[in-house]
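lol ok so funny story. i was supposed to be doing the assay writeup but got distracted and ended up predicting the structure for this chain instead. priorities right. anyway since i did it might as well share w the group, maybe its usefull for someone
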Amino acid sequence: MTSKNKKPMELYVHIPFCARKCLYCDFLSFRALASVHEAYTAQLIREIEAQGAFCREYQVTTIFIGGGTPSVMEPCLIADIMRALKYHFDVAEDAEITIEVNPGTLLYNKLHIYREAGINRLSIGLQSTDNRELRDLGRIHTFEEFLKSFQCARMVGFSNINVDLMSSIPGQTLESFKNTLKKVAMLKPEHISAYSLIIEEGTPFWDHYGQGAAGGWRSAGQDGKEHPMAADGPAFPPLPDEDTESRIYHLTRTFLTEQGYGRYEISNYAKPGHECRHNIGYWTEVPYLGLGLGASSYLGGCRFSNTSDLDMYLGLDFNRAPEEVLEQLHGPLQELSREARMEEFMFLGLRLTKGVSGIDFVSMFGIKLETVFGPVMERLISDGLLEKNGVWISLTEWGMDVSNYVLSEFLLS
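and the output, tada:
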């Protein structure tokens, strides 16, 4: 089968290791010894070989190496993973290949090896240019370290860089976030992701903010350890109030637009031609395969996830019948119903500023968009939350502001 006849597919590779868990993080990530990094990489390569044998009809258009903090590993391990991916999958010549990196773990030699391995896009987790805010998030880097990492990336030749920013974090003000936006925009990265902090259950931030609990954590001290909260007062400054959150949200959109960044998704901005192809694939239902511990997949109309148990993952014997091992790795498959796929078409597609296409809906489901969602769309258009432009339906600016509510209206049951 020639590449032009193959179906597109994306790959996500999960590296669960990090230098230290951030206080807001609920991702599958943890510290581990270098020997564990090596054992995990060897097993991941075995999984890549096994999975690749069942994906001959696909061509890989994007690869995203995420975590955790992939840059915490020795760069030769990342290069080994890249070699395995290219050998066992049909990776398109123009594939977008991204790696997530943390400024506190990024050195010049790592960047050089990433480039040689074929990685052509960096996603740098900055979050804030205010060092106090970074400490209160539990980040291990400073703004100055980020600047050095960014400069090194440019020197090595990376011309497609995303910078992650976070708003609504402890002690943040409208002015401090404006300073963050200004400092980052001056560097002219090709892409900026600007997400609002979500307090997730099971994190130290949940213990302090999410439940209003008396217990909590101090931000990391000079010894790099987390210290229990003192009884005489809160460990962290308060979260911004709703009015400040709203001002920050609208400032982000206005300021980045003025700086030449187009908003193409609720929380993502890019210079023309530098929209993240991998994420757009998620939002437009391009099939994707997750590789590594806890990685999720959507392939053949089914969703499945790898085991999150590291010992179980490392103990899998890929020398046995591949089908049996992969079944053990994935667990039960969730086959999406037609109605569930219609819901996801709307949930995911409406996150994009261009919205969803009625033509694409008919092509995918054999029925008109209006036949399924007509009354809901008419009401939301009348309320000023949706707008129709030819075959396209998209969120208005106000609809973007209350997107969670709008998207929930497309539940079919």
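The domain at 3-283 is CATH 3.80.30.20 (pyruvate-formate lyase- activating enzyme). The two ends are 41 Å apart (CA to CA).
back to the writeup now i swear
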